[in-house]
Amino acid sequence: MVKEKPNSTRIYDKEGYRRRAACICVRSEAEAEVLLVTSSRRPELWIVPGGGVEPEEEATLTATREVLEEAGVIGDLGRCLGVFENSEHMHRTEVFVMVVTQELEEWEDSKTIGRKRQWFSIEEALSQLALHKPTQRTYLQQLRHSKHRCPNSAPPIISEHESCDDGDFTIGTPKDENSTPESATAAATPTTAATTTNDSGEMVMTNEEEAVADERKEAEGGVSPSPAIAADEVEDAGSTNASPPTTPTT
User: Where do the record's region annotations for Disordered lie (predicted)?
Assistant: First the structure.
């Protein structure tokens, strides 16, 4: 069964990237074991719990909400590992570390879609993510690199790679709200539909509005769906070469 959120609203930053948040859940301060959950589309494979930021929601709240929904755990939210930018799928994921203090016997996704969770060593988790979500390996690589980072330093922007070996990721400078990354200048910004903006200038678009925007683009010139929508559709579909599913998932 595939997880569905038919009434969800996507939030985009000023550069057109969809905002997401995720958690690397660790068993202890030693950070030797991490918790992964099964994919909603391919339950034999494992992913890092996370999802889209909701309107008027801080990324920290998104991260704790998503791990409770998807993994059924509660804990102490710690440092931010960085903002992981995927230019191909047009989303940016703010990833935090959580030390788990409570594991629920049943939780929302375990009851609705039969999602499972499991503890892995860092090396085992890297191997599991390589099968289905190779870009999420950068989260674990940054977990290692960030352990001794100054607590007051701003979280870096990190470019995700579809295929990355240990250490193969690019760390950029903290985001300047007045600058535009090169990867974003050429990207399509989903403003064709009747979008609204919040007080921070972020774009807010419902699933229905995005569908209308895509239909309009295709009618005008056969333009493919916006990268942000494509990202949502393949978020849990496995390989980027697979055919995009029709139902968006977390």
Answer: 146-250
219 to 16, 205, 223, 224: CA distances (angstroms): 22, 20, 8, 10
The DSSP bridge partners found for residue 26 are 34, 99
Q: How far is the CA of 238 from the CAs of 41, 54, 235, in angstroms?
A: 8, 24, 8
d(CA 80, CA 151): 9
Q: Which of 15, 69, 160, 235 is catalytic?
A: 69
Q: Please give the structure tokens belonging to residue 49.
A: 């719990």
Q: Which residues does 7 contact at the CB level (< 8 Å), separation at least 6?
A: 206, 207
User: Residues 217-240: pLDDT tens digits?
Assistant: 444 444 444 444 334 334 544 444
Closest CA to 108 of 58, 73, 144: 73
Q: What local confidence, expressed as pLDDT, does residue 190 receive?
A: 44
**69 an active-site residue?**
yes
> Going by CATH, does the domain composed of 18-159 fall within 3.40.190.10?
no
Indicate the domain borders of the chain: 18-159
